[in-house]
Design brief:
Pfam families: OMP_b-brl_2. By secondary structure, this protein is mainly β. It has two helices and 13 strands, in the order H-E-E-E-E-E-E-E-E-E-E-E-E-H-E. 12% of the residues lie in helices and 60% in strands.
């Protein structure tokens, strides 16, 4: 009986050490050029006024199930959103309807879990490989701001921004081996929002088909060990 327990323990430790040998954990910093895109009728006049520089930072983990393929996940803090403008109709007391243009700066912070596949090439130079990344990400809202004012969870604003967001992820970059277990990496990632982030405009403009989604391109730099 004791022998079986010892054998099981040795097998478990061996499996754990093998799994850890296949896992690379790192820290990533991702400044992002963020914007928004719209699904809306032309009469609303939605347009992106400008992109915004947002921050992204977090911990990533690459689990290798072969020499050149890895499942990549982690936990990222990302800020998204930009300035948007739209047109709505205002009716005066004498019955005259006037189109009015409004501009909002949207800023929403998310905790995001990427779920992606990474393909690594063989060495293209001594200790340097390229990687290609594809997959998605699941985000949950941490906080939101409109015109740099926090949207608090009051009766009027609790449902301003949706709690969850889904995104498609597509990226490429390079890794450089610095030591036995240390690697530097840098790359570019395109983040395409798939879900509506803001319910306010549906009610403001009385259009249930209207949707605003995040877009962004991040410059990723970090270290793995």
């Amino acid at each position: 009986m004791q022998f079986k327990k010892l054998a099981f323990l040795l097998l478990f430790l061996g499996f754990s050490s093998t799994a850890m040998a296949q896992m690379e954990i790192g820290i990533q910093f991702s400044p992002t050029i963020a914007g928004n895109r719209f699904i809306a009728e032309d009469r609303h006049g939605f347009e992106k006024n400008s992109n915004a520089l947002r921050v992204g930072v977090g911990v990533i983990g690459d689990y290798f199930f072969s020499n050149n393929y890895a499942f990549s996940s982690g936990l990222m803090y990302r800020s998204k959103g930009s300035k948007v403008s739209y047109t709505y109709m205002v009716e005066s007391g004498d019955g005259i309807v006037t189109p009015t243009k409004e501009t909002d700066e949207l800023t929403v912070q998310y905790l995001e879990i990427p779920l992606t596949l990474k393909l690594f090439t063989n060495e293209i130079a001594p200790d340097v490989v390229l990687y290609f990344q594809v997959g998605g990400a699941l985000g949950t809202k941490v906080s939101g701001q409109v015109d740099q004012k926090k949207v608090i969870n009051s009766e009027k604003t609790a449902k301003r921004f949706n709690v969850f967001e889904t995104s498609a992820v597509l990226g490429t970059g390079a890794e450089m081996q610095l030591g036995q277990s240390t690697k530097l990496f840098g790359g570019v990632t395109y983040l395409r929002g798939l879900s509506n982030i803001d319910n306010y405009y549906k009610k403001q403009l009385n259009d249930k088909n209207l949707a605003i989604k995040n877009n962004g391109v991040s410059i990723d730099v970090g270290v793995k060990f």
